[in-house]
Specification:
The chain is of the alpha/beta class and about 270 residues long. The chain is built from eleven helices and nine strands. It has a five-stranded parallel β-sheet, with helices on one face. A four-stranded parallel β-sheet has the order 2-1-4-3, with helices on both faces.
């Protein structure tokens, strides 16, 4: 059994486990996500064998006292042949580190990964109620604040006006004759929703404010996605191959070819 000590937040955890799961599938090894054993209860994987709190506690403390060896993937582009050998030969092992990545295997087993991380029916029903009948284009926008004030020196910490101007330019340039419904998901509890509604009066503006899985599910059902580079929009794009635009220059006017598929972007995680 390979226990995956996931790093970061929910979307990071989905991607990290997906890579190790794919490696395990390829080599006939079972895997277990420690985060999805207890922390994020909204996915199919949470109801599968071994994904429970007692197994999480066992793996955590067995690794802590040395009963289970830990292999770490902490450096980008390092030689991990020794770590992979341990993953093949040890009966139980704990895998940790952000750079446990096998891109080709992830794509090979992508359908299985999506099945594992399918949303619970209650999440899908809630999102269906929020979205209602389709009328025009649904644009999902992820406004990342919080930790992004310091992430990469605040490079991707954008103002409300920058998001608004970008959406206006997108609407004018990419779909001027279409009705645009904009669904904002954000980790900023103080965001001025009325300001967005006033500034985007020609759009239908929504702030669903669901739990993390509901926000992720909602974004996955949009026609197009945009946001600062993050794994949250990336994972949302994965579910239905939704075209995604990562905002790296807020002054740029996006064109249709700037919206890229998950299979390309997931190799470019910042």
């Amino acid at each position: 059994m390979i226990f995956v000590h996931d790093k970061g937040r929910m979307a990071n955890n989905i991607l990290q486990y997906g890579h190790v799961y794919a490696w395990g599938r390829e080599h006939g090894r079972k895997t277990m996500s420690m985060r999805f054993a207890y922390k994020y209860p909204w996915f199919n994987i949470c109801h599968t064998r071994h994904h429970n709190f007692p197994t999480y506690v066992f793996a955590k403390y067995a690794a802590k006292i040395g009963l289970i060896p830990t292999v770490r993937f902490d450096e980008e582009d390092a030689d991990y042949s020794h770590e992979e050998k341990l993953m093949l030969t040890k009966r139980m092992v704990l895998v940790a580190g952000w750079y446990a990545r096998w891109y080709d295997l992830f794509l090979k087993y992508k359908a299985d990964i999506l099945q594992l991380f399918a949303f619970d029916e209650s999440v899908e029903r809630k999102v269906e109620e929020i979205l209602g009948e389709k009328d025009g284009i649904r644009l999902g926008v992820h406004i990342r604040r919080g930790d992004y004030a310091t992430f990469h020196g605040g490079r991707f910490f954008y103002s409300d006006q920058q998001y608004i101007d970008l959406i206006r330019r997108y609407h004018e340039n990419c779909c001027p004759t279409e009705r645009l419904s904009v669904y904002f998901c954000t980790n900023d509890p103080k965001i001025d929703q009325n300001f967005y509604r006033e500034q985007l009066a020609d759009c239908s503006v929504h702030f669903p404010a669901g739990n993390p899985a509901e926000d992720l599910c909602l974004l996955s059902h949009c026609d197009f996605l945009m946001g600062a580079p993050s794994t949250f929009t990336l994972v949302a794009a994965m579910y239905h191959d939704t075209p995604l635009y990562w905002i790296k220059n807020p002054e740029k006017t996006p064109i249709s070819t700037d919206f890229r598929p998950f299979d390309e972007l997931f190799r470019q995680i910042i």
